[in-house]
Amino acid sequence: MDNTLFFSPTEAVKTAWNKVHGVKTTFFIALLILVVLQLMTMYLNKQINPTKIDWNDIYILIFMLIIGVVRVMLLAGLNYLGIQRAENVPININMISYGFSISLFFKIIWLSFITMFLFMVIGVIAGLAVPFLIAKFLALSSAMAKLIMILAWFFSGVLALFFAMRFSMANGIVIMEKDLTAWKAIKKSYRVTDGQVFNLFFLMVVNIGITALTILTLGIGFIWTIPYLFINYGEVYKRLIAIDKQFFEQNGFYR
């Protein structure tokens, strides 16, 4: 049986790192464009006078909005390159144009809005509303109420991290399955990450560690690390989608 049907974080790291060879230039060109766009945004932002908005400022804001749209599309293209590289498909810089789709752009924006809203709801309920009601109706002392609030904040953080892991594949699903809506992508991500939260958390810690080590190289290591991170996401996406498909083929229904 193909070992890609079993999600091993360490295997995903090793495989992704090996696949960085031969594609660094492709990712570097795309990332260089992103850096230039970011520098342009920072420069234009300084040209705006917040105390007196005129037509020149409006033109600058419109141009910054266009730059923002291009950045979202470029990131979608980079994610596409990472997933394709994980699938062993030869990639080149021209393939980044896959992300330049208006319908895909709006789906990514809508996906971001939905996930942000869900996290806000989690934060308000778990971090504010529940401890406030407990402290109010149980007439707890000030010290006990503060303790409950701290525990609630900790719990809401853990809960947010849990859902971040469960929603993590939604972006890749939206990019690769254009027929799915943003909401359906979130639901599918929640399904394919079932039972994988600890694996995904471990992988996140490993990638944070790799990024931290890269910073110690004065940024030179990002030539390897940035392509790796996109390919690593593609490797995880590929494996979890394959596991989900295999489960359906064996059982006739999804989890």
What does this 3D model show about the protein?
By secondary structure, the chain is mainly α. The chain has a domain at 115-180. Helices cover 76% and strands 0% of the residues. The protein has nine helices and no strands. The protein is globular. The model has no long low-confidence stretch (mean pLDDT 85).
Write the topology of this structure.
Elements: H1 9-18, H2 24-47, H3 55-86, H4 102-137, H5 142-166, H6 170-176, H7 182-192, H8 197-215, H9 222-251
Short description:
The chain is mostly helical.
What labels describe this entry?
255 residues
* Largest sheet: number of strands, sense, barrel closure: none
- Measured on Cα atoms, how large is the radius of gyration? 21 Å
- State the share of residues found in helices, binned by percent: over 70%
- How many distinct beta strands? 0
How far apart, in Å, are the first and last alpha carbons?
21 Å
Order of helices and strands: HHHHHHHHH
Q: Quickly count the helices.
A: 9
- Report the uncertain regions: none
Shape: globular
Structural class: mainly alpha
Question: What would the average pLDDT be, to the nearest integer?
Answer: 85
Strand-residue proportion: under 5%
